[in-house]
Amino acid sequence: MKLLYKILLWNIVIVAVCLGVGGYSFVNFVFETSLERETKQALDESSILQFAFETAALNIPSRYDMLQDTTIEEIGYSLEHGGQNNSTRMLHISDEERNTLYLGQGFGVDEGFLQQIPKDGKIYQLREVNGRYYIHTGCKMEALDRVLHLETMKDITQIYEERKEGFEVYRKVILFVLVIASVIMYLICRWLTKPIRLLTKATHKMTEGDYSYRAKVISNDEMGQLTDDFNMMAANLEQNINMLENEIQAREEFIAAFAHELKTPLTAIIGYADMLRSRKMDEEKAFVSANYIFTEGKRLEAMAFRLLDIIVTKRLDIEKQKIDTEKIFDYLKEIYGEYDRVKIRCHYEKATIKVESDLLKSVMINLVDNACKASDEGGKVEIIGKRLEQGYLFSVKDYGMGIPEEECDKITNAFYMVDKSRSRSRNGAGLGLALCVEILRLHNSELHIESKVGEGSRFSFLIPWEEVSEHEVLD
What we know:
By secondary structure, the chain is an alpha+beta fold. It has three domains: 3-164, Beta-Lactamase, CATH 3.30.450; 211-315, Helix Hairpins, CATH 1.10.287.130; 316-474, Histidine kinase-like ATPase, C-terminal domain (Heat Shock Protein 90), CATH 3.30.565. The protein has helices at residues 3-58, 69-81, 111-115, 157-207, 222-278, 283-314, 325-336, 357-374, 420-425, 432-442, 470-474, and strands spanning 89-94, 100-103, 122-129, 132-143, 146-155, 321-324, 343-348, 352-355, 380-387, 391-398, 448-452, 456-464. A hairpin with a 2-residue loop joins strand 4 and strand 5. Helix 4 (157-207) packs parallel to helix 5 (222-278) and helix 5 (222-278) runs antiparallel to helix 6 (283-314). The chain starts with a helix and ends with a helix.
């Protein structure tokens, strides 16, 4: 059963029980009040009839020593049929031995009740006779030396009928109120549970794979907060799923690129090796074939070492040491000092930084190699080191072919190359920048790329000041 109908059902049950108990209590209270009033009136009537009987007995001529039975019958008849309430009054008069002297029409004698009448005082009981209800009173009275028992029965059936009619009317009122209340409560419950329905819809959408769907916030209460939290959770889930999908896609692209990069040199190696073993070749052709095999083998070796470096770097816990930036730039000058194809210039400021020097040198060599490969014959590459407030900035700038804007976010992926033919011709495999990214991650830094097609590129990263004294930084 839906929550909406559960809430509605329980509300209807609670309202019905409350109205039922309240209505029963109210109608019964009115009935008890009326019954108490009628009982008091019946007792008062009994006293009045007793007094009237005794008075009538005293007014009878005293020719008899005792009150005669016939006289008692006459007085009883007169009392029963006289007055305003004679239609609802019935009398029963009996003597000392409880023998009936006068019995009104329809009066049902109760011997047990007659035995209970005390010498002084009155008693009463409620009786049902032939489907009608009466107040039965009893008392003793004395008249001319005779002790008599006076019983009265007052018809109060109307009170019971009124109670019955009250219950009938109240049942109709309850039914009407429940119908109206059910409609109102249904509308209220739909309004209260609308956020839940919207959340359920959003959940179904996400189950179907639509992770971008968000539940609409329609209130500022706890349900609105829950909806906000759900949407935030959905956003995080969508982000994580997108990251997983991107990772899966990147792995697939990595595997495809890796297979392709292996296939190209292996094809050349197998082809030239087959030529060497299957036919006789002159010395020049044999040298060319062997040189192709050697070159492609070295390329495979470099690729394997780069992949191994990337894997190791991802799991590496480096130990940083303080080093002067001048030593890093001297090392680069020593390597590229006699580089003829491209002019390499170094501009740097002295400082002390805390890094893993071998890994940092590997980053700089990869960036400078890429800059040289991107530059034309006789081009210029600038290696820059600058001290900033946040840390030490390294930059490598070339004036070569540049990188299209849409390619800048992809070139750090393994095996990705903007110009594959040019990179392969210069023994590139597209792994250098991926290795640089992993090394910089270990140094709490990241690689920034600025490039414009036809004007060149600038690769830079910032090594933050870390546990280096101000004196060491400024020296």
